[in-house]
Each structure stands twice: as C-alpha cells, then as structure tokens.
Write a structure and sequence with these properties.
It contains seven helices and three strands, in the order αααβαααββα. The protein is α+β, with helices and mostly antiparallel strands. A three-stranded antiparallel β-sheet has the order 1-3-2. Helix 4 packs across helix 5.
Length: about 160
C-alpha cells in the first residue's frame, strides 16, 4: 500500500484511533500548514529555550497536581451513579443516552452492559427488588462507576458527539 492509500484508509475508518488521527490532521496539522506553510512541533533550538520550556512545563504540572490528585481519588471511588443521572451530567435525556450506548455496543438490548465493560470496572449491576402485586421480583439495575463516567465522556468527545 502506498502513502496516499494509507491516508485514505485511515480517513475512512471508524476506529477511535483513526478518528483521533483524523481530528489531529484536520484540526492541527492542516490549519497550521495553511497559516504558516509548514507544520512543526515546537522543538527548542537552543539550550536556554529548552530550559525555559522545562520550567514552563514544571509550572503547569505543579498547577495541575491538585486536579490530578482529585481526579485520581474520584476515579478510584466506589460511588456508583444511576444511568439517568449520568445521562443528565453528560447532557442527554435518559432514553437517548440508553439508545446511544446500545448503538455504541456498550449496552445490550435490555440496557445492561456487556460483560467486557463490567470487567473493566465501568459498570456495576445489582439486583433491585421490585414489588409486583403480592410477590417481589429482582430486576437488574445498572450503575455507572466514576471510571465508567470518565470512559463514556472520553468516548463521546473522541467521536465528536459532545464537546
């Protein structure tokens, strides 16, 4: 396969990696080439530029530390959210959210997640007792973990479904 054929294949792919590449090409590379005539990742040319860049990066890392620590605590938490609440957080109606996750092959037809996503720690399914007349039946209730909320949010952004 030649280089143009490879780009054509990538641009037509629906895989998340290809979408990320396509987004990078169309949002970063092509606009910079159009504006400046070339694309470069700004590599320091002198030792003093490299030191300045390292100092700037260290400053950004220090500023981000509290956010990173909070994020890590949030992701490792055992707090589960109902699907409807997660839908609201991400700006969706409950039914549209279920439909979207079914289309993305995360949820099955009965709105329970595929085992793969439970194993990854994105969902927890618990039996919820429901009174039906004179007897009680247990119905599966799907909850989203903090890790799952992060995964879904990232997935929706990668696919340009949310900004």
């Amino acid at each position: 396969m030649n280089e143009p054929g490879l780009y054509s294949l990538i641009m037509s792919s629906r895989k998340p990696e290809a979408r990320a590449f396509k987004r990078w090409i169309t949002h970063d590379v092509i606009p910079q080439i159009r504006k400046t005539g070339s694309y470069s990742t700004q590599v320091p040319q002198t030792f003093s530029e490299a030191l300045r860049l390292a100092a700037d990066l260290q400053e950004e890392i220090e500023k981000a530390k509290p956010k990173i620590e909070s994020f890590d605590r949030f992701i490792s938490g055992k707090n589960y959210q109902k699907m409807g609440d997660v839908a609201k957080i991400l700006g969706y109606g409950r039914n549209n959210f279920f439909k979207l996750l079914r289309e993305m092959k995360i949820l099955m037809r009965d709105n329970t997640p595929y085992q793969e996503f439970i194993n990854r720690g994105y969902f927890v399914v618990k039996e919820k007792p429901i009174q039906m007349g004179s007897h009680v039946i247990n119905k599966p209730q799907t909850y989203v973990t903090a890790k799952g909320i992060h995964y879904i949010d990232k997935l929706l952004k990668e696919r340009s479904i949310i900004v």
